[in-house]
Amino acid sequence: MTEPRWLDEGERAAWIAFLTATNLVNRKLEQQLKDDAGLSHTQYEVLVQLNAAADGALRMTELADRLVTSKSGLTYQITQLERAGLVSRRSCPSDVRGVFAEITERGREVLRFAAPGHVEAVRNALIDVLTPEQLTHLAEGLGEVTRRLRTEQRCGAQTATQGGTATQAASGAGAGRP
Amino acid sequence: MTEPRWLDEGERAAWIAFLTATNLVNRKLEQQLKDDAGLSHTQYEVLVQLNAAADGALRMTELADRLVTSKSGLTYQITQLERAGLVSRRSCPSDVRGVFAEITERGREVLRFAAPGHVEAVRNALIDVLTPEQLTHLAEGLGEVTRRLRTEQRCGAQTATQGGTATQAASGAGAGRP
DNA sequence: GTCGCTTGGTTCAAATTGGAACGAAGCCAG
DNA sequence: CTGGCTTCGTTCCAATTTGAACCAAGCGAC
């Protein structure tokens, strides 16, 4: 690697847009959720995932994976949510080590309460800002990025080359009807 | 607002892709920079901005604004960087209250050292994953999002409607040649 | 001039985060 | 079955991050 392939004008523009836009959007949502529902975005996403799950419950690791967060971080958040009565822990029958995080009725209520404002915010910050085509393009591009990083993630750390074929896409919503 | 406008299939897909992709990318970069250069992404961006600035210096507020971070957060990071000798504080001649953060020679060296690996990572995580068209679309879409949120930000909190016309776009790079 | 309001940065406390270390369990080959 | 390796969550600790409170200094109107 003599001289790295620096970003050209367009690439740089894309990268800058990515950085600032994501920061701004996250900031916006964080604020909205905190103000209107007293939840952090992470907590909201936990509720969304659990609410959408089969029995309103998911294993800790699975959940951490979906949220793209660390295991310890999740442990912390689940504890908080449990303390608030929105989620409860349940042990796994088939695996003593396992722990299920399960959304409570109160958790579902809070989610139902918070959802409208959140969707509204998501629309204002991202969805409604773009034309349908732009949105499609965005979904395709970022979807591809996700797939790429996910496979790379699963296939252990091979020296920075690319992974293989596709993986399944995302699952639960995020701003969908609760 | 009777029933909120929930996201349809495509919108949901876009939103999910946005959430996961951004998390994954950030995670990736954070890790790479920490491992290879001992810098957090925030710190790296500080150096980038200062390095690209006119005199290698920027006012605290201006910098916080560009990084889309809180003032207190920046104060913290600048203190860290100063401690590490990569940045130094300089008072502003025209405004006693003002403080300039200025990149040091050592700061520039560290940046030069870290840049190649960072660009490489940015390419692997985002740029090279997409086709040129996808990249263009992405830049346009997210650029629009940025503009929107920036203006909304500047024009005080008017009840969630949209802002006016365009603002100037971003400035310093992020993964450009240092 | 000087009162009142906005700005620029820092300080402070509280909430999160992530990685490393751990203990308890699964799991598989020999 | 038993040693050796992986997996599951939690605990612990250090690093960040953010908003609120604060002090000092500009700034404009009176």
From TrEMBL, chains A, B:
Segments for region (Disordered): 155-178
UniProt cross-references to SUPFAM superfamilies, sorted A to Z: Winged helix' DNA-binding domain
BP terms from Gene Ontology: response to stress
Low complexity bias spans: 156-172
Any GO molecular function: DNA-binding transcription factor activity
Record InterPro entries: HTH_MarR-typ, MarR/SlyA-like, WH-like_DNA-bd_sf, WH_DNA-bd_sf
Residues in HTH marR-type domain copies: 1-147
Record PANTHER family: MARR FAMILY REGULATORY PROTEIN, TRANSCRIPTIONAL REGULATOR, MARR FAMILY
Protein name: MarR family transcriptional regulator
